[in-house]
Write a structure and sequence with these properties.
Two copies of one chain form a homodimer.
Chain A: H1 20-27, E1 78-86, H2 92-109, E2 144-149, E3 193-199, H3 202-215, E4 220-229, H4 260-266, E5 282-291, H5 293-296, H6 301-308, H7 345-349, H8 351-354, E6 359-360, E7 363-369, E8 375-385, H9 388-397, E9 407-417
Antiparallel strand pairs in A: 1-3, 1-4, 2-3, 5-8, 5-9, 6-8, 7-8
Amino acid sequence: MEQERPDPAGPEAPRPGLSRRGLLGLLGAGAAGAGLGVAGGALAGAIGGTPGDGGGSARSFPFHGPHQAGITTPVQDHLHFAAFDLTRSATADDLRELLADWSYAAARLVQGLEVTPEGAVGGPPLLPPDDTGEAQGLPASGLTLTFGLGPTLFRGEDGADRLGLAHRQPALLEPLPLFAFDLIEKGISGGDLCIQACADDPQVAVHAIRNLSRIAFGRARIRWAQLGFGRTSTTTRAQATPRNLFGFKDGTANILAEDAAALEEFVWVGEESDQAWMRGGSYLVTRKIRMTIENWDRVRLQEQDEIIGRDKGEGAPLSGGGEFAPVDLALRSTTGGYVIPEDSHVRLAHPGTTGTRILRRGYNYVDGSTGIGQLDAGLFFISYQRSPAQFAAIQGSLAGDAMNEYIRHISSAVFAVPPGAPEGGSLAEGLFG
Amino acid sequence: MEQERPDPAGPEAPRPGLSRRGLLGLLGAGAAGAGLGVAGGALAGAIGGTPGDGGGSARSFPFHGPHQAGITTPVQDHLHFAAFDLTRSATADDLRELLADWSYAAARLVQGLEVTPEGAVGGPPLLPPDDTGEAQGLPASGLTLTFGLGPTLFRGEDGADRLGLAHRQPALLEPLPLFAFDLIEKGISGGDLCIQACADDPQVAVHAIRNLSRIAFGRARIRWAQLGFGRTSTTTRAQATPRNLFGFKDGTANILAEDAAALEEFVWVGEESDQAWMRGGSYLVTRKIRMTIENWDRVRLQEQDEIIGRDKGEGAPLSGGGEFAPVDLALRSTTGGYVIPEDSHVRLAHPGTTGTRILRRGYNYVDGSTGIGQLDAGLFFISYQRSPAQFAAIQGSLAGDAMNEYIRHISSAVFAVPPGAPEGGSLAEGLFG
């Protein structure tokens, strides 16, 4: 602790913050032999200057803390989610260094700063810029960056202990099982690592993923990525409940940031974990759920209400009351049937049916159109939970959901989300040594 | 003009506004035999209630007027663009009816209203809702809807006069030629019709395209569609110049709404048109331009500046001055070469080189990732001009652009954009009869 640090001067010394590998990523493969010691003009690297009018905002959320941001943070309107695979030759040291580089850059980006102090235009003119520059002039825009580790990081598909970290794999971190009606496409599922970027301005989220991907050059590369808009959950009481592309309010009964007891019980990993490095973290599940919206749009209003178990206008449970009234699963109509139908989404997903809860953070998506004239659209589902078993219990219950006629789960992924990095530290340091 | 209108009562009478076919679209094929005369509860169909916090805004732009909105309108941050093909069996009457239905619905949508007065929840419970409902609670959000007609609407690919409207085809409305380096994918190019939806909230733009597509059921269907964000142009002096995904300011020298003379000269179709129905309209060109951003990001800052002809920080021309300083194409450096390089984008696109100008209205896009770990991203270029020849002159000049190493034009389309619909009227009425 008291050791003297090596002198950072000299032609090969990295600039503070990013590792030599991280800086190489910014230069690209072709420039690997270029002189890294060339000092730039070191202009101030703040992105936030003249704000654009792009829906961005000056609000910012700190990167460091006991939990990672982007879980209970009030849900921003725009998502860029990316899953990464480590390169085959990567080692545990490479992973540690990459997580340190990402932590350094993320702590800057969420403040509305460029990826390094030199940024897009403050470096030497004869080197590629450190920052790609498309967020110059945009404010922090409430950006959060949330990082996760997939099961394949610990054991490859052949079961091999690829990084010598298999003993650090949490017992709960296993690929999700196949559920009823799953039509999972492997190319947009799984991943060794993930980054969830949420922001008030999509350009700010895209800029973050792009620059973090660049830093990873030679160590990890994007496996799949997804843009989303129109958050389909709230995590604070102050936010109005948004609507999904079925036209219904979504996320009414979500776990909220104000409910500390529910967060402890259902979201944050505690002392029960077999891996100390995961305490204070969470487990992240993503599911790309394509909606056959043209078929849905032909369903009668009353039937739509019965499939969901709520009314399309207010989002009120069919058992009565307003949007936030408790769902009365036992109530029967005068004809004897349940008012909340037995195959309704709200009944099958309800804690009274599943025995558990999750924190949802999904987004609507539109990926253009299908070859047969339909919108290629749906819900990019994201949930956080103390154990993936909570998601599995709910998804298992939804096997009987009448909504299944109108949706297809086409991607699936699960990640261990470590706790937040301490001030001056990096993510998942407890994973190593 | 003075004729008495037929009595709209009776079981088969359409509700005011949408044609019977348009209403059938809302019900879908399966419901074609259902009783249309069943009157709904006719609740107020205003979408704007409790605004979400989705970046939406209360501002609205009128649908009716001498020119269509969405051309000189201050550029909103989000785009959903869709191209449609007429069904094979469609007639000129079908087209006329479709344009009337679209005009009726568009005039409502841009006010923040639902697609019909019955909307998502005000109709009969035993019929599918008229409106899909995902914009309930969202304000108008500055939505504009701009409609265009493609060359294939007049003559099919076999040259046939498919609707009996070939004599109404403007001479200028021909498919664009192939340009240098074009790698056009047919499935995301062309189209008989198009709708450009721009809004402050992507959910509002998506809602509009989806509901207009639904109304078209049986008459036209989506051929291709594209989402965009982070407008890459301004059309008013009040807006800051945004940045494209090369990290450079884009649209600095655009034609602005305040410049009436330039609009007359370069954007609005005038008396010169061989088709009276196009006067006051414009021609729309779209080009999906994929950027190989990972390659671009490895280019030295100085070389990036020279490829563009402006500096990456301020967007100032390399010939000197601030962002809005005139570009001095003649200026030479002390070593004798041009300061604005001969193969720079700004020189080759400059009116001093091309002899013409266009009004640009493009957007950034990210469509996930490629199979080789790169972002599938770029610029969805949109321009409006008095003649497609203006675009062709500029694009021809850009054959020598040094930027071509980092971009690929993968889609192309051209549409005739009729003038705005008069109050109480529909788009392109002059095309018929």
